[in-house]
User: Which sequence fits this backbone?
């Protein structure tokens, strides 16, 4: 039976705190919660279930959004219609990034931010992320474009940073000549 996650709002203190490194083996509770994040994010991107369970569509979650200050992120990325890739990273670190900077043209959203915030968030166009899987094996991914943005957004959560803090108040929107908009 699917049970919707209780995702905390930006007003909660833990959304602004730095999460702690995780040690292995993972607890049973953490593994269960990772599974629930995958289910929640997947269902939220399938219109039928989004409606049925009254979900807000989202592709990523970080544990502090659930009130747990552990460095764990989950991204569910729709590669093709109805086909999803799951990324579970424990203690993720960006080990290299492109010089090129991009931004999501429509702005970013966050399941913990329940208000409209306009503006472009500058992000690296490509990042290489290293971390561990649920069993403690070292993993690495090279992400680009919207997936790269998702990784940067979720890793920011582990450092208590929300996307709108990265919007330049004096220059909320960029043109394509300044930053490539995707
Ligand atoms: Ni978020």
Assistant:
């Amino acid at each position: 039976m699917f049970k919707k996650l209780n995702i905390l709002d930006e007003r909660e203190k833990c959304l602004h705190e730095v999460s702690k490194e995780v040690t292995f083996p993972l607890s049973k509770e953490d593994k269960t919660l990772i599974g629930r994040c995958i289910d929640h994010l997947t269902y939220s991107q399938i219109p039928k279930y989004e409606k049925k369970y009254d979900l807000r569509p989202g592709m990523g979650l970080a544990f502090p959004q659930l009130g747990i200050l552990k460095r764990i992120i989950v991204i569910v990325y729709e590669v093709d219609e109805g086909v999803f890739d799951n990324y579970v990273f424990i203690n993720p670190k960006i080990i290299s990034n492109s010089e090129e900077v991009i931004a999501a043209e429509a702005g970013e959203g966050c399941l913990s931010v329940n208000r409209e915030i306009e503006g472009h968030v500058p992000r690296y166009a490509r990042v290489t992320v290293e971390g561990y899987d649920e069993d403690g094996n070292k993993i690495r991914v090279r992400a680009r474009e919207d997936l790269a943005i998702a990784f940067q957004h979720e890793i920011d959560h582990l450092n208590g940073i929300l996307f709108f803090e990265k919007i330049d108040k004096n220059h909320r929107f960029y043109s394509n000549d300044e930053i490539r908009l995707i």
The chain has a mean pLDDT of 97. The chain has one domain: 19-181.
